[in-house]
Amino acid sequence: MNAEIITIGDEILIGQTIDTNSAWLGQKLNAQGVDVHQITSIHDDKSAIISALDEAGSRSQLVLITGGLGPTKDDITKTTLTEYFEDHLVIVPEVLIGIEAYFARTGRPMLEVNRQQAALPSKCRVIINQRGTASGMWFEKDGAVFISMPGVPHEMKGLMDDEILGLIAERFPGPPIFHRTIMTQGVGESFLAQKIADWETQLRSQGLTLAYLPSPGIVKLRITAKGFDAVQARSMIEEKIQSFMPLAGEHVFGFDDQTLEQVIGSYLQQMGKTLSIAESCTGGAIAAGIVAIAGSSDYFAGGVTAYSYDMKETILGVNHHDLLTHGAVSSVIAEQMATGIRRLAKSDFAIATTGIAGPTGGLPEKPVGTVWIAVSSAHRTFSKKYQFGHNRARNIEMTTNSALFMLLQEIIRQRV
Amino acid sequence: MNAEIITIGDEILIGQTIDTNSAWLGQKLNAQGVDVHQITSIHDDKSAIISALDEAGSRSQLVLITGGLGPTKDDITKTTLTEYFEDHLVIVPEVLIGIEAYFARTGRPMLEVNRQQAALPSKCRVIINQRGTASGMWFEKDGAVFISMPGVPHEMKGLMDDEILGLIAERFPGPPIFHRTIMTQGVGESFLAQKIADWETQLRSQGLTLAYLPSPGIVKLRITAKGFDAVQARSMIEEKIQSFMPLAGEHVFGFDDQTLEQVIGSYLQQMGKTLSIAESCTGGAIAAGIVAIAGSSDYFAGGVTAYSYDMKETILGVNHHDLLTHGAVSSVIAEQMATGIRRLAKSDFAIATTGIAGPTGGLPEKPVGTVWIAVSSAHRTFSKKYQFGHNRARNIEMTTNSALFMLLQEIIRQRV
Q1: How far is CA B31 from CA A233, A266, B162, B210, in A?
Q2: Which of B304, B313, B371 to mutate to test the interface with A (most CBs of A within 10 A)?
Q3: Cβ separation of B294 and A211 shorter than 8 Å?
Q4: What ipTM was predicted for this assembly?
Q5: DSSP state of A161
Q6: Which of B16, B179, B310 is nearest residue A346 as measured by Cβ atoms?
Q7: Is A213 within 8 Å of B357 when comparing Cβ atoms?
Q8: Does B282 touch chain A (CB under 8 A)?
Q9: Which domains does chain B have, with CATH numbers?
Q10: What pTM was computed for the model?
C-alpha cells in the first residue's frame, strides 16, 4: 500500500524550519508496513495545496497532510480542504469544549479565532487533539484517504500515536510486519556492517530485512519480518538476535528504541541505587537527559556543571595543584570530579566529563574533541579517554552517549 | 522565478535520514530572491524520478536535484537523467584525474565503479566536485534548468557555494527579496496575532507578508518584502519593526533567528559579567543550552542540578526549615537556590528553577506544571510563578525559555 506525505508551510520552503515531521512519519508508517513513496512540501497557497492533493490522490491510497492549521491568517489548509472535498464548516461541540478547557487550563484568554478552530468540515471524521486546538481531519475521496494534522511536532505525534496509526492499520490491513531493534553504542556503522556481514547475508536469505539507523555515537539495527505469521516471525527474529550477540554484543545497550537513560534508570530503580553527575564539557546535557525520564527523582541525586576551575575546586574538591599540573582535561581531574560529586551527593554511582568541545580551545597535545570520562562507585573509580571531532554539538552528544554507556557497563558489572 | 527541489533516496522516505539539505538550499535560494515553491522526496526508482522531473519541469524554471549519485547499484540518478535528456555517457578526463587524485589522497583503492563516476552525460555542463567523486550536472530542456548534485551535505553545499549559486544568479536575474524575523517569548501565537491585528493588516496592504512560526514558549514573526529595491525594502521593514515595538515589544528578545542563549551570551560578554544556574525541574537543560554556544566559558561559571532536598541544602545552602514549611516548589526556595548558586559560583547573575515537571508528583495546591523561577544579582533577587501543562518535555522547554527570558530582562534592566 502506497502512502504520501504533504507538508504545508512557507517556513519549510524558505529553510527556516527543517522538516523533521516527515522523517518521524516515515519511520512510523514504515514500521507498520506502509511504504511512503513521496514527500511533498508546498507553500501555504491554495492552488499549490489543491494540485498537490490531486497528484497525491491519483498515485496513493493514503495521503498524510501536516501544517497550516493554526488560527492565524496565513494558515489556509482547513478552508482549502473544505473546498476541495466540497464541504462546509460546522462547529463541533466536543472540539469547542476541548478548546475552552485548554484555554482555561493554561489561563490564557480564548479569542474568536480560537473558537473558530472548532469549526470543521461536516463530512470529515474529526480526530480530537488533546495537546492543542487544531483537530485532525480524516477525509475519503475516490478510494483514497486524506488525513490532515497540525504541523506542531508534539501535537502531530500525539494524534498519530493515540489514534491515527491504529485507524490506518484497520483501514488498510496488510501483510503482518514485525520489527525488533538492537540498540548499539560506540561502534561505527560501516565497522559494525563489516563485523556482521555473514550474519546479515544469512538474515536476508531467510527473507528478513535489516536497516542501519545511525545517529552520533549510536547505531540502531532494525530487523524486519514481513508476511510471516506472528509466531514464526518472532522466533526467526529472536534466533537472529541470539546469534548477533557473540558477534557484537559488547556494543548492545538495549532493544526496541530504549534509550541509554531509560535502561540506566530501570537498573538503578531495580537495584535501589542512586546516581550523580559532574559535567564540564557536556554542560548539563547528561543530567538533562536523565531528568527527562519521568520518575528519575527516585534515583537521580543531582549534578554539578563545573565550568570554571574555581567551581571544580570549591564544589567538587578537585585538587588545585593537580589542575595546574595536568590541566582540566585529564584522567586525574575527571576521576576527582567523579569522586567529588559522588561524595557530595552521597550517591552510589557518579560520572564525570571533561573535554574540549570546540570549535576553539584545542592544544597541540589536546586537540579539539579530546574528552576524558570517569565513572566512580564504592568499588572503584576509573576513566577513559576519547578523541572526537571538530563539531561542538556532535562532540557534546558523543560524550553524553559514551559516558552513559560507560556507566551502564559498570552498573551491569556490579549487578551480576 | 520558481524553483523546486527534488531529493532522491530511500533513506529519507523511511525516515532514516532527516532531509536537512532542502532547508539549507531553501535558505540560500530564498536569500537570492529565488522562491522554492515545492520540495519533493522520492525513492531511488526510475519511474518515480522521471515523473518528478516531468512535473517539476512543467511548473518551474529551475529544478535542483540531490542524491542518488553514489557508485553503488541502488544509485540510479545519473543513468536516469542521461536517458531523460536523451543523452549518452562519456568519460570526462578532467573529472577522472580528480577522482584518481582523491583516491591517492585518501589511500583507499580505486575500483572500476569509482572510475565510472567520471562517465557523464555528453550534453550537460559538468560542475567539478572538489570534495568527493560525484560531479554536479547542469542540464537545460524547454527553457528549464535541471541541476543534479550529490546528496552528501558537505559536497552539495560546496558545489552550491563555489559555483552553482553564482551560475543561477547569472541565468535568472530576478526581483530581490528581504526578510527580518522578530523573536518573541512568553506570548501565544493567537494572543499576539490579536494584539498586532491592525499592524498586520497595514503591513499586508503595503505589499509585505508576515508569517508566524511557533515553538514551545517562542513565536518567531517573519516579515518579507519581495520585489522592492534594497533600500526601500529595508526601510519598509525597519519602519514596521519600529511600529511593532510599542504594541508587543515587551515580548521581543531578538531578531533574525537569534536564540535566547545567544542574546544573553553576547550581553554578558559585552558587560564582562558572569552567570550561574541552579536547576531542579529543568535538570541541567538550561546549562546545556548555555554551554552549547561556543565561547560560553567566558561568562558561564557553572551550575548545579539539585534534585534531592539534601543537595539543595548541602550545596546551595537552602534552609531546611523553609524546605519543610514551603516545599521545594515555592518562591522562597527558588530564591534561596538562586542566591546560593550565585554565592557559590561567585557570579554576577544567577537563575534557579524548581517545579513539578510531571507527569506525576502533582498536589492539589501545586498541580503538575507548577514552576517557580528566580533571578538573582547583586542588586536584587526575585521570583515568578508559572503554570504550564501536563507534558514533561514541554514543561521543561517552557521553563527553560521562561527562565532565560526573565534573566535577559534583568540583564537589560541593569545595563541601561
Answers
A1: 51, 49, 16, 16
A2: B304
A3: no
A4: 0.76
A5: I
A6: B310
A7: no
A8: yes
A9: 2-171 (3.40.980.10), 177-255 (3.30.70.2860), 260-415 (3.90.950.20)
A10: 0.78
